[in-house]
Write a structure and sequence with these properties.
Blueprint (H helix, E strand, L loop, with lengths): L5 H12 L2 E5 L6 H16 L3 E6 L16 E3 L9 E5 L17 E5 L10 E4 L6 H11 L6 H14 L10 H12 L4 H9 L4 H12 L2 E3 L4 E7 H7 L21 E7 L4 E7 L5 H7 L3 E2 L3 E6 L4 H18 L2
The structure holds guanosine-5'-monophosphate and manganese (II) ion.
Length: 324
């Protein structure tokens, strides 16, 4: 048992001393950002705090089953007063997409490499498998018991951020927290089913189309997926339906990295995934994006075949660098 980091005590004291708290997280929220915000919000409400959760983008439909999801407000600017602001899952403040946060007391809680420590209080722990791991410890430190709703929110965060317990940073701490979650009586099988067995038929069709057109580069070590608006329309999908498809090619032994080009608006969104020591975060950072070693993303404002080739060659170089 390691002792808690000193930041945790200071964060607890700041939250216990606050009357009004704003919670937020990154643009295009994922399971970890949503689950972490909702569970911490519920804990703070149990302590009698006035809590608001404001995100820049709405949650993907997939997460509609999350308890209290409807309490999350969507805005691009924060004007109201709060005693403190908790920013979860953001390596820099601009990841929130929100204006109006600069001059406020901020508690920064994150597990992404490269966090720039923008908070008044910063708790940055890259060894956490999900931000929800840190949030679970914070809730414990605040002395608030887990309700089944909070347990569901935290479990979704951990389940999705670990790619169903497959990615890096899964440690004994992860399972200690999951043990506490399961003790509340929630059914982990039902939660997993809501996340993974509840998609649209359009998503299944789109998966087929993407894999059918998948290209293999760099001696089959890089799988390339390409999506455009016409494919979404043909499959009868919304952009929400894309979530998670990028991981599928990693199932092949030869594939060491996946590059998913999403050409569905003015800019090109690119998702990167990799196995083991192949560091796609560095590739994302070189284009102004970020993320984790095995899961990262970037945006290219003016895409062209040259920018596509540059992404692919940097991913190939990351694979070569990882080889002994
Ligand atoms: P995804 O490919 O699912 O959009 O993102 C994978 C991971 O990379 C997530 O942890 C996400 O937060 C991070 N990520 C994606 N896009 C960006 C970006 O533009 N900037 C930063 N800093 N992180 C990103
Ligand atoms: Mn996360």
């Amino acid at each position: 048992m390691t002792s808690p980091p000193p930041e945790l005590g200071r964060i607890r004291d700041a939250l216990l001393g606050a009357r009004s708290v704003l919670l937020t997280s990154h643009e295009r929220p994922d399971g970890d950002s949503l689950g972490s915000q909702l569970a911490l919000g519920a804990a703070l409400r149990q302590l009698g705090k006035q809590v608001r959760i404001i995100d820049y983008d709405p949650a993907p439909d997939l997460y509609a089953f999350l308890p209290d999801l409807g309490t999350i407000e969507i805005a691009d600017n924060v004007t109201d007063r709060f005693d403190t602001v908790v920013v979860l899952e953001c390596s820099s403040l601009d990841r929130t997409g929100l204006r109006g946060l600069d001059e406020r007391p901020i508690i920064n809680i994150d597990h992404h490499p490269g966090n720039v420590m923008y908070g008044t209080l910063n708790w940055h722990d890259e060894s956490a498998c999900a931000c929800a791991e840190l949030v679970s410890e914070l809730i414990d430190t605040l002395g608030v018991p887990l309700t089944p709703a909070m347990a569901t929110q935290l479990y979704v965060a951990i389940l999705t951020d670990t790619g169903s317990f497959r990615h890096a940073n899964i440690t004994p701490r992860t399972f200690t927290i999951c043990q506490k979650i399961a003790t509340t009586g929630i059914n982990p099988t039902d939660v997993a089913s809501q996340v993974y067995n509840n998609g649209s038929l359009g998503r299944l069709r789109l998966t087929g189309m993407l894999l059918e057109r998948m290209q293999l580069e760099h001696g089959h070590r890089v799988a390339v997926l390409r999506l455009n608006d016409a494919m979404l329309a043909e499959a009868g999908c919304t952009p929400d339906d894309i979530e998670g498809i990028v991981n599928i090619p990693l199932a092949a032994r030869d594939v060491q990295a996946v590059v998913f080009f999403k050409d569905t608006g003015a800019a090109m969104r690119v998702s990167l995934r990799s196995k083991g020591s192949v560091d796609v975060r560095q590739v994302a950072v070189s284009f102004g994006g970020g993320g984790h070693r095995n899961a990262a993303g970037l945006t290219i404002e003016h895409p062209s075949s040259e920018t596509d080739s540059l992404v692919l060659s940097r991913v190939a170089a990351a694979i070569t660098d990882s080889e002994p």
